[in-house]
Design goal:
2 copies of one chain form a homodimer. By secondary structure, the first copy, chain A, is mostly helical. Helices cover 56% and strands 2% of the residues of chain A. The first copy, chain A, starts with a helix and ends in a 9-residue tail after the last helix. The interface between A and B is large, with 44 and 45 residues.
């Protein structure tokens, strides 16, 4: 199921890219630079939009690497424009495309750590459920909420994207 | 894994209850009624805080019912105070406590529908990944974001809650 959830993460990241279209359209209609969005935040002590996008991408990338034992490629976190943020999103989605289901075979039982945990560890199963999954959706939703709060017209269909539905029998 | 994710949903709902503590403390310090929070929203065409809490609860409840073939108990959506919202959260967590892992044995292959889909269906696996999971985190994060935007002091530890970590070997 890890592999399936990463499929959903990729879909969610690509939906985020469509929100950038809406942000650019709104900025154009109001005659301001869409890159203003990269600097906005919901509270003065929260991270700004660009950082929310970067962390959403990194949370997906790092979780995939940690759960499969791969080395994570590093990104410089230098994006300041919507166009640069689009590239960041597409780069991580392309990277996630390189994983296959068998890569996650031992994911649940791997021992996961990160520098700020000072040697403490989590099982892959606990790390994914308690840390990676809620964090990913935290940052994706803050990207969405910053746009909505600042006039961009988005709705649930933009958030969820297309659903795999079957016609009535 | 469905059962494990519902465990995470319960944890997340109980974390939300601790955010209400922080909201009440902030309201008390500023001498306003904490129930004002129930009416706040991030954009005029988004749902207000109380509705975000109700839908977070309902998304978890309805997903558990749909994936296990149970009838969902209905709630009246009449909460207007923080105390009433606390009861709503605790009621759904207690309800989810009644599920056991074997209830989800056929979750992935069930045929799921809801009235607004006009007869179209999704498999349980697709419904959970593409609809229930992102929707649950959407509403939980909007609850969090409305509080943060309106002065309540919360951080990532409040969002995630305690992590199942193991001491260094």
């Amino acid at each position: 199921m890890y592999y399936s959830i990463f499929g959903q993460f990729k879909k969610q990241l690509l939906q985020m890219d469509t929100w950038f279209d809406a942000a650019e359209a709104h900025a154009k209609a109001k005659s301001f630079s869409p890159d203003v969005y990269a600097t906005l935040r919901l509270a003065p002590d929260q991270l700004a939009f660009a950082r929310q996008v970067q962390i959403a991408c990194d949370t997906a990338k790092l979780a995939a690497c940690r759960l499969t034992g791969k080395e994570a490629p590093s990104q410089a976190d230098t994006e300041v424009t919507i166009e640069e943020l689009r590239v960041r999103v597409k780069t991580v989605v392309a990277y996630l495309d390189g994983f296959v289901a068998p890569d996650f075979a031992e994911a649940a039982t791997r021992s996961i750590t990160q520098p700020r945990w000072e040697g403490r560890t989590m099982t892959g199963a606990d790390y994914f459920l308690e840390h990676a999954l809620p964090n990913f959706y935290f940052h994706v939703n803050h990207v969405y909420a910053i746009l909505r709060h600042n006039g961009v017209s988005l709705g649930k269909k933009d958030y969820l994207g297309a659903l795999t539905q079957h016609a009535p029998a």
